[in-house]
Amino acid sequence: WADGLVARILTGWLLPLNNQLLKYLKETFEKSQVFEDADDGRGVIQDFMIPIHHLEKAVQLTDTITGIYPLWMVPSRLYQPSLPLEILPKAGDVIFIDLGVYGFSHLPDWPGPDKTLKKFEKFTLEHQGFQGLYAETLLTLEQFCDMFPFQLYRRVRESLPYCEDAFPNTYEKVSRT
Questions:
Q1: pLDDT at 38 over 70
Q2: How far is residue 89's CA from residue 91's CA, in Å, rounded to a whole number?
Q3: What is the helix, strand, coil percentage profile of the chain, to 5?
């Protein structure tokens, strides 16, 4: 129902969350004294799109490695039969859940932001999910191309004059590797 006209008129101003707002909130709260662990680098702001039948495992993983609650969960349908086959989700016509993890881990054995992100990304790849591209990634280029269909993207970039010279590709924009 969320892609219907009435829903967009009534709630469209709420969704999706503005990336600049998320970055502002992260910078504001990580630098404030509101969270006592902010200086320890315990902050997590990540989103992952997981097929609904893997949601229980994803929540268990999140609880185990971060202990952060509440979690942001928004259902969505990514499969549109009119789209080119190259960009249809590998999981098929299933409901995906946007699982957002926003907060600070208070677990004593928390492995840190990079190891946590790598565990999330590994889980997401293994379960035919996607990572929010407004978030950071530590995926290799090969893993990134496995998660996101890069063939069509590359063809479009190659067909546009000066695109390769003038603009970084998506992976270069979001990767920290």
A1: no
A2: 5
A3: 45, 15, 40
